[in-house]
Amino acid sequence: MRHTRIIVTHYGGPDALQVVEEECPEPKDGEVRVRVLAAGVSLPDLLMREGIHPETPRLPFTPGWDLVGIVDKLGDGVSGIEPGAIRVGRR
After folding, report:
1. Exposed e or buried b for every residue in 49-73, given b needs 16+ CB within 10 A?
2. How far apart are CA 27 and CA 72, in angstroms?
3. I need a surface site. Which of 12, 24, 39, 77 has the fewest CB within 10 A?
4. Whole-angstrom distance, CA of residue 68 vs CA of residue 88
């Protein structure tokens, strides 16, 4: 299954954003894959894109901590949640 996402390729302005289409990663042990329906991008995401937020991830990264989505697949060892569950929160 393929998906589309936006990544920050280098620190800077809007030119640092790139749309990529790739295969969906399989969830690892203890992970849950969520099909994102909506993601919020806020001031911390903009500061991360510029490389000045204290919690800036390593490049490349996908901005948008806040999300709403549906659990798509479970990795081994996951309990307490089932595929099809709606998730609201932070990734």
Report:
1. beeeeeebeeeeeebbbebebebbb
2. 10
3. 77
4. 5
Percentage of the chain modeled with pLDDT above 70: 98
**Domain boundaries, given as residue ranges, for the chain:** 2-90
Question: Two tokens at 27?
Answer: 């969830």
pLDDT band at 64 (very low <50, low <70, confident <90, very high): confident
* Residue 69, token pair as written in the block: 């989505």
pLDDT range class, residue 48, cuts 50, 70, 90: very high
Taking a C-beta distance cutoff of 8 angstroms, is the pair 36, 89 a contact? Answer: no
CATH topology of domain 2-90: Quinone Oxidoreductase; Chain A, domain 1 (3.90.180)
3-state secondary structure of 29: coil
Could you tell me the sign of the dihedral formed by the alpha carbons of 36, 40, 46, 51, in that order? negative
Question: Can you tell me the distance from the alpha carbon of 70 to that of 73, in angstroms, rounded to the nearest whole number?
Answer: 9
